[in-house]
Design a protein that fits this description.
The protein is an alpha/beta fold. The protein is built from 6 helices and 6 strands; from the N terminus they run ββαααβαβαβαβ. β4 (118-121), α5 and β5 (146-149) form a beta-alpha-beta unit.
């Protein structure tokens, strides 16, 4: 059974205010045979063209909509979080931490199943260039099963967005209520890169 992965991030970097600094990549692995069905289900849950958890949660009844989506995630999913917490002070923008996390998760996925495909949310400008460089370097090491997409074009990116937002709330506010809304076990892996 091959899983394909969809990845989104959340972060609070040393360039932001506050004492808590982290970089998180949230992954949702989906059994390949279930992908089309899950896309249709997401469309029936939320008719909009773009889901962004922070915006949804700011609306009246947003928490209900959010938890409805989170609780509908079926048994054919794998939920994972890779986190660097704290981000080293020298990594002001979090880009070194992001690169480390991407390389780590790709190695883990490639080791588990080289047939798996990974879709990242597309960032813009210089961040897109940075991601493309990181991912292109992975091609040299034999992994080219990746792509970048907009959540407006790939609804399955909404799922790691919900997972990332839930964990962000937990890290910043100690609020575990959103994390508890998932009906699946979430695996969390803390990483300690040498980027200080």
């Amino acid at each position: 059974m091959t899983l394909d992965y969809f990845v989104d991030e959340t972060f609070h970097t040393p360039s932001n205010s506050g004492k808590t600094h982290f970089y998180v990549l949230a992954l949702v692995g989906i059994e390949r045979s279930q992908i089309k069905k899950l896309r249709r289900e997401l469309k029936s849950i939320y008719a909009g063209t773009r889901w962004h958890s922070t915006e949804i949660l700011a609306r009246p009844n947003g928490r209900i909509k959010f938890l409805n989506l989170a609780s509908r995630l079926g048994p054919f999913l794998e939920l994972k979080i890779y986190v660097i917490n704290p981000i080293p002070e020298r990594d002001r923008t979090g880009e070194l931490s992001r690169k480390y996390l991407i390389e780590h998760l790709i190695r883990a996925i490639q080791k588990a199943d080289p047939e798996s495909f990974v879709t990242f949310e597309q960032r813009s400008g210089g961040q897109y260039v940075s991601d493309k460089k990181t991912l292109t370097n992975l091609n040299v090491h034999g992994f080219n099963n990746w792509r970048v997409r907009s959540p407006a074009d790939e609804r399955l990116l909404w799922l790691p967005d919900t997972l990332a937002t839930s964990y962000r709330r937990y890290l910043l506010n100690g609020d575990s209520g959103l994390m508890e809304g998932f009906n699946r076990i979430v695996t969390i892996e803390q990483l300690f890169p040498g980027v200080s």
